Amino acid sequence: MSRVLSAAAAGLILCTTCEQLARHQSAPAHRCPRCGQRIHLRKPDSLARTTAYLIAAIILYIPANLLPIMHTATLVGGEDDTILSGVIVLLKTGSWPLAALVFFASIMVPMLKLIALTVLVLSIHLRWTSPPQGRLRLYRLVEFIGRWSLLDIYVLTLLVALVQLHALATVEPRPGALAFAAVVVLTLFSARSFDPRLLWDPVSK
Amino acid sequence: MPERLTFPHSGDGPDQCPGCYCEGMLDPGAPQLLACPQCDLLQKHAHSAPQSGGRCRRCGAVVAHPRHASIDRPLALALTCAQVFVLANVFPLVSMNVHGDIISTTMPRAVWALYQHQMTGLALLVFLTTLLAPGIQIATILTLLIGLRFRRGQRHFARLFRLVETIRVWGMIDVLMLGILVSLVKLAALATVVPGVALWSFGALLVLLALLSSSFSTRDLWHWSQERYA
């Protein structure tokens, strides 16, 4: 099977920005000969960065779910809403498809992402030798669904801007929203620093 | 019989990019070498169909995007995107009628409201993902395409290209659109909600951006730059 040759083994680097194949040189600041972007055989410190962002995201995941993300004040009093209670309110007002959507985007997706990234990172730390196809699919899923968790942040933004009815009702953001947004952004960074080619390196050698 | 890949020697390349594997470096009959961005497998591009796209043999990731013939189509779409983007941010998203009082907001004003509630971090995030990133993305694509169309601005091509590729992942108009719809349903419980011009504009922008990104590829841009700046 001498046909299975990775670009790295052939001394070539793929520029992930412009898709140009370039010869590997041992210069400290190696740039793509075509578009000028910095290029690397593998993303630098991929595993360390992915793990660091992931740990930060896992820690913030707790306040993100426990702290209220918004406060609604009405004539009859005020109430704090967390991510989960927001979904329950949607369910009670009768729009279950929407409740399912928000549940998926705000609760399922962040949890799935944290679990998937943990599996990916562990599989490389522990040098799994099983075929990487399944894990590559997991990585693509994380890349694809990751951004949809920002949904609740946008909903909050619009509610805060529009529900300012002075005496009748007001909506204010609460610190939980910041923690939640941080989890989403940190997992986005974590997924972006992960280099899927690392999954294949044990197979290619 | 195992196939052997042979590589040209360094320094064989055209003068403008020494050390790189341009298509022109290999003899015209030879297939193009490609590396998979997700598994790094080195492979040859299907010789028979140089215009079509291709997927990695081992993991199925896209290794070559299909080529597009026309530069005018993405240019027209980018121009439309720019106009619709302005509409989407200048006009009100929704208006609510509460006992005769009409309350409305635009997207930039909604971000400002978040800032005024001491949520600077959140405001910055929303500003970046819904205004700054899509704005820069559209403006940069437009500049690149106009430059290629009229054969001007070769000096800035590479820098603008890198900017587009970097900023692309941070534009989240699609997620925003869904967020707007969810908040409309939530608001409908409080008051009568009237969709504004910007709501329709964001919907149109979503479709236009999808059309724009499918009307040209990274590969096209570099092919056009080779053809037109030669």
Task: Describe the structure concisely.
With about 200 residues, chain A is mainly alpha-helical.
Please provide a written account of the structure.
- The complex is a heterodimer of chains A (205) and B (230).
- Chain A has 7 helices and 5 strands; from the N terminus they run ββαββααααβαα.
- By secondary structure, chain A is mostly helical.
- Chain A has 2 domains: 41 residues; 161 residues, Up-down Bundle (Butyryl-CoA Dehydrogenase, subunit A, domain 3).
- In chain A, the strands form 2 sheets. Chain A has a 3-stranded antiparallel beta sheet with strand order 4-3-5.
- The longest helix of chain A has 30 residues.
- The relative contact order of chain A is 0.18.
- Chain B folds into 2 domains: 58 residues, no CATH class; 157 residues, no CATH class.
- Helices cover 50% and strands 11% of the residues of chain B.
- Chain B has 7 helices and 7 strands, in the order ββββαββααααβαα.
- In chain B, α1 runs antiparallel to α6, α3 runs antiparallel to α4 and α5 packs antiparallel against α6.
- The N terminus of chain B is likely disordered.
- The interface between A and B is large, with 73 and 70 residues.
What features would you highlight for this structure?
heterodimer, A: 205 residues, Butyryl-CoA Dehydrogenase, subunit A, domain 3, 2 domains, three-stranded antiparallel β-sheet, two-stranded antiparallel ribbon, B: mainly alpha, two-stranded antiparallel sheet, 7 helices, elongated
Q: What is the topology?
A:
The complex is a heterodimer of chains A (205) and B (230).
Chain A: E1 12-14, E2 21-23, H1 46-66, E3 70-74, E4 77-81, H2 83-92, H3 96-125, H4 133-145, H5 151-162, E5 169-173, H6 175-193, H7 197-204
Antiparallel strand pairs in A: 1-2, 3-4, 3-5
Chain B: E1 33-35, E2 42-44, E3 54-55, E4 62-64, H1 72-90, E5 94-98, E6 101-105, H2 107-116, H3 120-149, H4 157-167, H5 173-188, E7 192-195, H6 197-215, H7 218-228
Antiparallel strand pairs in B: 1-2, 3-4, 5-6, 5-7
